[in-house]
Amino acid sequence: MSGKQTRAAQEPGRDCPLCPRLVDFRQGNREAHGDWHNGPVPAFGPLTAKLLIVGLAPGLRGANRTGRPFTGDFAGQLLYPTLLKIGLAHGTYGERPDDGLALVDARISNAVRCVPPQNKPDTVEIKTCNDFLSKEIAAMKNLKAILALGGIAHNAVLAALEQKRGSFPFAHAATHKLSNGLLLTDSYHCSRLNTNTGRLTTKMFEDVVKGLKAQVG
Which of 33, 81, 133, 152 is 20 to 30 A from 55, comparing alpha carbons? Predict the structure, then answer.
């Protein structure tokens, strides 16, 4: 178990130049908020984990500010308490990277490592960043299951594993057994939009994570 950010075989560098639109947005944020992370956000948790949780991208005032996935934004207020409740984390979530929170046999990453304008990466950016996700998954030798938060994360995982999208349609609480033996479980993203509209409730999310933990062991 580890609360530290353990780097995969390859992570984008702090000044990754691959996506021009995201580079411009990053530079603007660095000028406006010099004390923020403002760079590609590395995964959180050990490469030895059995479970990988994949989100969409860093939030502007969340991970882009703090440098840790889902830390300091609304989505983290559902994700981390759920992981703590179900035994996939220990400590206290204080909405900052030095809060001492540690993940237990779990790792958290994103389909896109840099914050996009309006929290919406474009198709080319998702495809460009997919190589990092693919390498990360390959480096997780004990991996048994992946939890995709939202349809974009679901599709990014399938692309990283060279699986056919049509064979594994996204659906909340669905679990797919992929051709390589990994389990892919889906959940609606734990965003403010989904929780405020009732599309995703705390119980719905907890049930998905609890069921996945039972399968992973």
Answer: 33
